[in-house]
Write a structure and sequence with these properties.
315 residues; mainly beta; 5-stranded antiparallel sheet; 5-stranded mixed sheet; 5 helices; 9% helix; 39% strand; globular
């Protein structure tokens, strides 16, 4: 027997168990007794959510159908000089560097596409951006040695983007960094280093950078922000993950510090660098014993996923 889960667009939950919290593990895998599906939109194959680690009732629909927001699967790039003719100095980009290759992904484009399946140097990358949460995260898309590609499901969890992989159509939480439903439920994605900063700052540090081209093959007004008039709490924070712990660094608090500074992270020293002019925050472990994962997101949304994470306060 097949069961379809009926969804509506209902208020976002800002409290509840975190997927990767500081004091508790991900929720246990649950397997429904009957095949269970979530509609993906008219004419679209539904998502099989028989296996899941979150409450299905917390998955929100009501937006575009699956792939209604088109991911960029064959992205083209231009030089920094050419990109500079269209990008403003203050435009925000998500920058990635591996080996001798640096690439910049303008948020003006990511606002309309949210996912870019790409390679930087020899490193496969999944570029993800959730406009509702102000969160840009770059993942290693390799799962069990196979490089996956991803699309936009049209569904949300705690207001955050739910991606899906093309191989199994499992649903993945961006801020949770984990598959929440489907065949791969409970599988985590590895976060790769990236920098969210202004175009000017990235170009100055990486003059040979390649830049995602505005010639995407889609007709979009990349000069406009489709979410610019939305009422959202846009206060940002640096989310740092290290040694199985999470800590939140609100930009409002980082502005009160002298950068760089060293913070105690559950007994580990973490170096935090913040550039208020370019709204850039990064983290690293001075000893380099273990890489530190970090990304930027709106503080309220980060707290929804990591409610037990300590919040940094400047002295």
């Amino acid at each position: 027997m097949i069961r379809y889960w009926k969804l509506g667009f209902f208020p976002i939950l800002l409290t509840g168990a975190a997927l990767l919290g500081t004091t508790q593990p991900p929720q246990a895998l649950k397997i429904e007794k009957k095949l269970t599906y979530i509609p993906a939109g008219s004419g679209q194959k539904p998502f099989n959510v028989t296996r899941h680690i979150i409450r299905l009732a917390d998955i929100q629909a009501g937006g575009p159908p699956k792939d209604g927001i088109p991911a960029l699967n064959y992205p083209s790039f231009v030089s920094a000089v050419e990109a500079g003719r269209l990008l403003r100095a203050s435009d925000i980009v998500l920058g990635v560097e591996f080996g001798a290759t640096a690439k910049a992904y303008p948020v003006r484009i990511l606002n309309w596409h949210e996912v870019v399946n790409d390679t930087v140097g020899r490193q496969p990358v999944l570029i993800s951006w959730c406009p509702l949460c102000g969160s840009g995260i770059v993942f290693d898309p390799r799962i069990d040695g196979q490089t996956g590609t991803f699309g936009i499901s049209g569904l949300l969890y705690k207001r955050n983007l739910l991606l899906y992989d093309h191989a199994t159509e499992s649903l993945w939480s961006q801020l949770g960094t984990i598959a929440v439903a489907g065949a791969l439920a409970g599988t985590e994605l590895h976060i790769l280093p990236s920098t969210e900063t202004t175009w000017t700052a990235w170009r100055n540090q990486h003059p040979q950078t390649l830049v995602l081209s505005f010639m995407t093959g889609y007709k979009r007004d990349y000069s406009a922000d489709p979410y610019g008039n939305w009422s959202m709490d846009r206060r940002s924070a640096l989310v740092v993950q290290a040694h199985g712990k999470v800590k939140l660094y609100p930009f409002a608090q980082l502005k009160k510090t002298v950068s760089p500074f060293t913070d105690d992270f559950d007994g580990t020293k973490i170096a935090i660098r913040f550039d208020s002019r370019n709204q850039t925050a990064v983290a690293e472990e001075p000893k380099k014993d273990e890489p530190v994962a970090y990304f930027v997101a709106y503080l309220a949304d980060a707290r929804a996923f990591y409610p037990h994470a300590p919040i940094f306060k400047a002295r």
